[in-house]
Design a protein that fits this description.
This protein is of the alpha+beta class. It has helices spanning about 5-25, 45-60, 90-95, 160-165, 170-175, 185-195, 210-220, 250-255; strands at about 30-35, 40, 65, 70-75, 80-85, 100-105, 110-120, 125-130, 135, 140, 155-160, 180-185, 200-205, 225, 240-245. An 8-stranded mixed β-sheet has the order 4-3-5-6-7-8-9-10, sandwiched between helices. The longest helix has 20 residues, at about 5-25.
């Protein structure tokens, strides 16, 4: 593993600080509120984002923030941290471990660092990456698969209800019988699996940039490719994902349009 930069070291420390908050509240029966978009939020979300911000701001006082729960501050700064303290709050609330803390760093509009920490999944699973320095999962370098044929590929879908309402549902129906395996791992998990060579394609709708910013850096550094479903570059307005090991990109695109 390469030496950590100051940005990465502090981001990992921030995710560990949030992990303490999350573990304290997990499966504790805490109260759940509903935000204006009908998504749930808990005290764990708010406190964990605050401890992340405090950790990062102490180390980098001139940096800006864009957070899921606490909003934006100094968002025109050269460096801006993108934070989703609990991506998968619905899972967190229901008491199953398919949630994670997502921390990404954007430098002059470019995503350059990502940390994805799933503290309650198994014995804990953390992925991280910096631009040009490779991607790592629990300290081990990772890379996407070499699968280059649809009959050997595993496809994971996210937010299937939204996909089912879209014009692409029929084309997905044509794609699915051609792949080896179809799954719906969702949230952080199918991106960790894709970046580490255990899944080959991810299609997902109904996301926002805070869900995928860190995972975008991790996947790219693992050798994968990621755009939205229309083939556009990932950015602040992204709401869907087409991610792959790169080798299957054109084969899948030919099926889904």
């Amino acid at each position: 593993m390469t030496a950590e930069s100051p940005h990465l070291s502090v981001a990992i420390a921030a995710s560990r600080a949030a992990e303490k908050v999350i573990r304290h509240y997990y499966q504790s029966g805490l109260a759940v509120q509903t935000k204006s978009d009908q998504s749930p939020v808990t005290q764990a979300d708010i406190e964990s984002e605050q401890v992340i911000r405090d950790t990062l701001a102490k180390a980098f006082p001139t940096h800006g923030f864009f957070g899921e729960e606490l909003g934006r501050s100094s968002s025109d700064a050269e460096y801006v941290w993108l934070i989703d303290p609990i991506d998968g709050t619905k899972s967190f609330v229901r008491g199953y471990p398919m949630f994670s803390t997502q921390i990404a760093l954007m430098h002059q509009g470019e995503l350059v660092l990502g940390v994805s920490n799933a503290p309650c999944y198994g014995n804990g699973e953390m992925a991280w990456a910096e631009k040009g320095r490779g991607a790592f999962l629990n300290g081990e370098k990772i890379h996407v698969s070499n699968i280059a044929e649809l009959p050997k590929a595993t496809l994971s879908l996210g937010n299937i209800a939204s996909l089912a309402k879209s014009e692409r549902w029929a084309s997905l129906g044509r794609l699915i019988p051609q792949v080896h395996r179809i799954r719906g791992y969702g949230d952080f998990l199918h991106y960790h699996l894709l970046a580490s060579g255990r899944v080959d394609v991810v299609l997902e709708s109904d996301v926002n940039i805070l869900d995928i910013a860190a995972l975008t850096v991790i996947l790219r550094e693992a050798g994968g490719e990621i755009t939205d479903l229309e083939g556009r570059a990932i950015g602040l307005e992204t709401t869907s994902v087409f991610a792959s090991n790169g080798r299957l990109k054109e084969l899948v695109r030919a099926q889904i349009g």
